[in-house]
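Q: What would this chain look like folded?
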Amino acid sequence: GNSGGDSSITGSDITNIVSVGGGYGESSTAGTGSHDGGSGGGGQSGSGPYSPGGTGTANQGFDGGDGHTAGSGISSGGGGGASAAGAVGTNPVSGAGGNGVASTITGSSVTRAGGGGGGADNRYTGSTSAASGGSGGGGNGTVDGTAGAGTVNTGSGGGGSGYGSGYGSASAGGTGIVVLRMATSDYSSTTSGSPTVTTSGSDTIITFTGDGSYTA
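A: My prediction, written as structure tokens:
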């Protein structure tokens, strides 16, 4: 897989913020190892030694779960989420994705940044099953077929895949989001990049789902 891209807020008169893209999960065929990121990718057991999950970034996300040690079935770890680590793969079930975090910055409570669920390979002794994604948009893992994608504009991880009657397909994580909230009396209306602009009470909320800018 590939790690997710960063989401960021930068400006000449603010403290710049970079939310690191999530790490990718281990591939048993590519032998890449899990990758660190905003949240860590889940580990895979494979037919050889298991791999540990990737490491998350402090104050952004948690570690991915370790893959189960090789033997009776193959169950991978779940991807880390914004509020919890991915679960360890423990036969007969792969690890679930870590849960995301709820925020009310847009005026209502929305949970984002859930980890992807681990896929499973049941070709070996002891059938295994895939796991669900974490709350906030994490995609579900799969054995056959296509895993669940991370929900768009939540920064959540996609589900992993495995092998049942054939190879499954992992899915991509969800795109990120940047939200600014300020008093409406301070809002200048000078933006670029076509953000969504809404109000909540006496505040204005600017939501970017792609590149853009706001000038105070």
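DSSP finds no helices and eleven strands in the chain.
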